[in-house]
Amino acid sequence: MSVKEKLKQVLIEDLNLEDVEPNEIEDDMALFGDGLGLDSLDAVELVVIVQKHFGVEIKDMEEGRPAFQTISTLAQYIEERMA
Amino acid sequence: MKMAIQGIGLTAGFGSGIEALRSALQSGRAASVTGNGEQSAFRADVSGLAEFIPKRALRRIDHFSKMTLLGACLALKDADLLDADRSRTGVVIASGYGALKTTFNFLDSYLDFGYSCSSPTHFSNSVHNAAAAHVSIQLKTTAPSLTVTQFEMSVPSALLSAQQWLAEGRVDQVLFGAVDESCDVLTYCREQFFGSGEQGPLQPLTFAEQSAVAGEGAVFFVLNRETDTAPYGFIDGVRMGNYLVRPTILPEGDQLIVGADGHKECGRWYQQLLKGRKVAAYSPLYGSFPAAVGFDLAVAAVSQCDGKLYASPAANGSPAALPTQKLGGEQLSCLKLGPGGDYGLIRLST
Fold first, then answer.
1. Contact state of B55 with A19 under an 8 Å Cβ cutoff
2. What confidence tens digit (pLDDT) does each residue in B256-300 have?
């Protein structure tokens, strides 16, 4: 399973997005606001999710901000640090 | 000061809503018993919440708070107040355990992954007042909200606060709830303590035997100051104390509903205080948990409304059990005893 696919799956499971299917989350859909509709509390959960499922620690939210734009940007951020 | 009961909403193993409670009282057993034994029969189904609150708004709300919200919504619906202004409605919730499952999930995540990977959502839901906060936010009740936890005495203790708020005029109405949940960790712990007794069947009036089975549920009441109309009657008063420190006199002419729930440790106190007096007990319908006193209160209110005291389920011909009977002029009282002589007595009238 690719990082993107796993990300979609854990987002749905850990953020309880019961009304969303993985294939409905587009790679370039905005995670926050109008796209997937996540909010600031989800951002904190996202930091935990990334560390728990991918072993990548986001120590600084400013550093994480560009990564939290879309599934693609977050997957790229994770892949660069997992390598 | 008397409190008028304007509406009741509940969810437990027997189902959701006041008619589910009536059916359970009439049939004498929980409606959702499955092949998995007694314990699965005492789990509350919260799917009915979708009628009141959008699914997306519930995604950060755990099972404990969902039970709470469902009970609150059903009570407002029963009182025909779903669309009413709730700016002067207070929320008082009693719980002996709080959100057990979320608390253990949070602790597990801390133990497994360390503090940096502990879910903030789990943490925020694990605090006892989270459910009251969810009720206030979702139902827009902007008056004070409070959660009271005093184990077996949580319900009478919280009722005293609700009564005080109404007497002081701090609120015009109180959404009063009693909530507890069960979970696998609790079941495991109880099996370690109580052994095979935890498998049921629950026999509350067999005071000398351990037969408690963990249950869960939420029950809510819409309470206001005494008015001319109260569909379920009135709560006349609430008394608490410790009868070893100061002996209490039970109301002689009242029909007593006792909160005995198969715990041998508490059973012996009932035996001692009741001295052979016939009583009713309904814990086999909803299981054993501290906030079940709220369900006893709901049974008493429904009995007043129906003019009939229902037979105690699973009494098996116990000489301690009151038979089914029409209620005349006598009052109903709910008696809960905790370990060590603590008691709470809630007296109702029509």
1. yes
2. 999 999 998 899 899 999 999 999 999 999 999 999 999 999 999
Spatial contact of B298 and B219, defined as CB atoms under 8 Å apart:
yes
For A34-51, the pLDDT digits (tens) are 889 998 889 989 999 999
CA-based nearest distance B121→chain A, Å: 8
Q: Compare CB distances from B121 to A19, A41, A51 and report the shortest one's residue.
A: A41
Which residues face B207 on adjacent strands? none
- Domain-by-domain residue ranges, chain B? 3-349
Domain range summary for chain A, segments of one domain joined by +: 3-82
**What is the tens place of the pLDDT at every residue in B122-133?**
999 999 999 999
Identify the CATH class of A3-82: mainly alpha
Burial of B270 (0-12, 13-18, 19+ CB in 10 A): buried
- Euclidean distance between CA atoms B29 and A65, whole angstroms: 55
ipTM of predicted complex: 0.77
CATH number of B3-349: 3.40.47.10
CB contact A19 to B (< 8 Å): yes
